[in-house]
Amino acid sequence: MASFGKIQNSVASFSNENTAALINVNIDFSLFRCQPLAEFLAVGSALSVQRKEEAESGQTHKTACTLGFLFHEKLPDTSSLFKAYGLRASEIISRSDINPQGTTGDGPFKDYIGANGTSIWAAATSGEASIAVHLLACMLARAFDAKSATSIWVEIVRERRLEIEDLVRNNKVIHPNSYVASKQDITRAELAAWDVCGRAWLRRADEFKAKERRQFALIVENINVPYTAPGSTYSKVLTTWTNSMRVLDNLLNNISQEASDRAILLAISSWHLFPNLLIFQNQATKVDCHDLLFPASGILTLGLEFKSHKLEEPIRWSLALSHLRYYGDPVRVRSNEDISRVTMPQLWLVALGSILRSWGTTNSEIPQVICWFRDLGDLLASTPGGDCPELSWIVAFSEAARYYLALENGEEVHGLSLVKYGWRRATQFFGQNLRCYPFFMLRENDIIRGLKEEDDISKGFAYISNVVARSAIGSKRVFISFSMTFGAESYSEWMIIDPPGAYPPTKHQTQPEASSATTKKRRWIFFYNNRIGATMHPELLQKRKKYIESLGEVCDIIYNNHEMPDDESRNRRDTLYWHNPPEALSNGSQNCLYLRKIHVSQNTMMAAGFYLWVVTDAEDPEILDIDSRENERAAIDMCRLQLKDPSLAKSIVGFLKSFTTSHKVTLPIRVSTEHDEASESDQSDHPPSDVFANTGSSFSLMIKDDRPPVEWVRSVRALEAASILYHELPGATISLKIIEVELHKARWFPDISRPEAYVHSSLSDIAKKSAREWFNTMTRENAFGCIAMFESGHMNINSEHLEETVALCTENSIFVAGILLSDPTDVSDGPRIRHLVGSIGQTGMVLLVAPLQPRIKPMSYDPMAVDHKIFAGELEMPLDWENTGEIDQDIFLLESVISVQHNGQWIADIDVLGLEKTPPDLFYSDCGSDCNTPKSLDLGEVVRIDTWEELLDPPPTTGVLRAKGNWIARLAATSILIQQEKGNAIVLVAGKDHICWNCFAKRYSFPEPHIPQFIID
């Protein structure tokens, strides 16, 4: 350290050749340490012992020193910037919610909890140049992904070394520190670890300055300032880095600056230092960022010189990397600083924007449609059946709309930007080229008019009537029919669509009576029974007639089969003959009506039991066609009014349920078969009176084939399940790159994790199972697969590859299986995952896996080491946790050995996943203090297990390990016994009360006494 000080203070006044020969290049930079600036002292105090040791003497410190000395000659003097950054870093790390402290409840991750300020303290104890290197790490972490950022580090380190070698070769003046640093070996892995530290810190600092970052991002989005640094990757990075430092330092010194390079904006966002802004666009606007580290008059001017039209694509920092791939030409990469992280409620705003884009919603309509979603949610919340599983995904979108509309104090601007982000970019989030019908078909006038009717058949008639009214059928007489099976009979209902005054009065009517009758809708109803000729349900016909007349319509009952429409030609399904039609139709002059079926697009009328007929001549070969898809759409504000109409609420809920689930509709049967006769006895002789009101046929008629694709609904269900999971992971955020994933292909979703179920899953299978039910079926590996996808924004891992995973670590988050951090008696539905704020300092996404064969201390041969005493008292077991070992693959796997230690002596390595494979028996003492169960267990046969040796060398009788309240000891002991294949001989006492031996004896006395060998109380 002393000799290094001489090198640091020496002056290169003689030739570089001699200097190079004199300098000892084999210097351990981890031994060098300088006094940190006072502004950084709070950072060092807030670090855990392990992280502080790494920052002061570990590999991170060595990397900080080496990079600082390597680049220090290229850096400007910006001491004001370093001091301000130290104050900001100290401010961030001093807040307990940003930098929580590890507790025993965090188990083996206690030392890794909190904000990772390792690289900051390593830089602070290595000199100002190293602080500048940390600032560059933050800029690269903000602009590029980890692979690209690491490749940039490799490239600029290599170019700087070549630059120094060239200076030495040409006998130019070079600082000895630079030369020594250029001879140090800095591996790609070390540079990747340096990037990890900066990236983890950036996540915590972003949360601390979330509001300021959002405000600044909205400003930057509308400013067309380009990246101006020219040349190679090395020169671009160096220019961007140093210019940004100079500008921020000048602002801190009360010297106003102009930002002509977008790199300055990147630096502000990356370093969380926000000066006051003066923005020139249509007019000059001053934005006060209220950052007390900057003087009020130190203003950054934006948009003064660069004038350009609004670009469709955001401005990017473009670099060509020679070290991104092993072989091939340099790869051009572009910065992605707009790829930020969001919470789950914010992701739903993006999802809301995605569905609006698929609906063709214009930019100006977005606020109105968001309000429509909110109104739809209000309707579902206040209507019976609106909370059913089939509609939970619609409710989820409505809740997203409600979340947005509740934002205030400027947050609504950010919320709208997220909606529009999804509207612009999330075009394949729910499936490539897949969409849900706009407004769930509730904007179609024909459908709304149909839903206003009370009973199901009337809904269908009203819908078809509106379709016919818009068609080119003209003055022809048109019938709508509906048929459904009813035991051995077929029920039919016919309605005529005629203009008023279409018929002259019959011989039994006066002119006023005929006029009145023909202005009303008219129906004919009948049961067709081709076996006995007469209906068995005349009372239902009378009840139906009375109901139809209560609607203001005319209704006639046809009892005679010979007066019903009949299909004379079995080979001509498009025609019907109506012999002896009612007098109101024939006017006494026609003995037969010839009816030809009208073909409707999608042919869903027949599938739903509805038919459309036109009265024509028998010789008329014309076949009419109607396109039922040519619907009239109501204005959005009118749609909102309809959602507030109480008379429509019940119908809308029923329609939406049918829209989501495809169900089989009863088909009409007119021809008698042996099967009909055989099954007659199986049918109810007394069908429910509301059978005509709730057939569901009209909804199928209106929906046609426009239900959402099963893949689309699966995508929404996957997002709902992920929402429930993330609700239990407070503080976890999501990469917005997730919008580039087609969610229905997510391999972690339960039905996709079972290929046979995925292939055969129908829309109803997916929709009828609530999101909570889907979540409860998720396993631990499903949950880790979900987290891996949403954390990274792209990883789609097969669940079977995560079966041995106990934790997932990425940047500043550690996701741990609940089984590792809880008492073995804790059980709950769904996967139990905990989110810890912390970093293990590993690159990429790290999966912690249990070792295949965890070791256990062999039994000793000391007879005095084990003394199983008669049971009495309690036991406490101190434990130390230790993680060791590493396996490097595409997604990094870290073999995590969790060791049980007692007084520094190793006892065993445990695999807690054994509790899932061999769950122990649980016993609850819930009888209270007044247990009257006869005592039948001889406690003299029960011994205590007081030490680990006594557990490893168990007695041949029942042993009790009393560790109530010490979940770590209970977890360790249970895991060890399971690893010894004694899982079936364990009983865990659950609950807060101690064991009731009377109840215990009763529990294990049937069918014969079978007291377990190990009782863990």
Q: Report low-confidence residues grouped into runs of 5 or more.
A: 1-22, 306-335, 500-518, 664-689, 864-890
* Largest sheet report: 7 strands, mixed
Report how far the terminal alpha carbons are from each other.
56 Å
How many helices? The count is: 38
Q: Please state the overall shape, judged from the principal axes of the Cα atoms.
A: flat
Structural class label: alpha/beta
Strand content: 5-15%
Strand order of the largest sheet: 11-10-9-8-15-13-12
Helical proportion, percent range: 25-40%
Defining traits:
38 helices; 40% helix; disordered N terminus; 1017 residues; 7-stranded mixed beta sheet; alpha/beta
Molecular structure report:
The protein is of the alpha/beta class. Strand 23 and strand 24 form a beta hairpin. The two termini are 56 Å apart.
Give the SSE map.
Elements: H1 2-9, H2 16-22, H3 41-46, H4 49-57, H5 59-71, H6 79-93, H7 118-124, H8 128-143, H9 146-169, H10 176-182, H11 188-208, H12 210-221, H13 233-252, E1 257-259, H14 262-271, E2 276-280, E3 284-287, E4 299-302, E5 318-321, E6 331-334, E7 341-342, H15 344-358, H16 366-382, H17 392-405, H18 411-425, H19 445-451, H20 456-469, E8 478-486, E9 489-497, H21 511-518, E10 522-528, H22 538-550, E11 554-557, E12 575-579, H23 583-586, E13 592-597, E14 599-600, H24 604-608, E15 610-615, E16 625-626, H25 636-643, H26 646-660, H27 674-679, H28 697-703, H29 710-727, E17 734-735, H30 750-753, H31 755-760, H32 763-767, H33 771-777, H34 780-792, E18 805-810, E19 813-817, E20 833-837, E21 845-849, E22 892-895, E23 898-902, E24 905-910, H35 914-917, E25 921-924, E26 942-944, H36 948-952, E27 958-961, H37 967-979, E28 986-990, H38 997-1003, E29 1014-1016
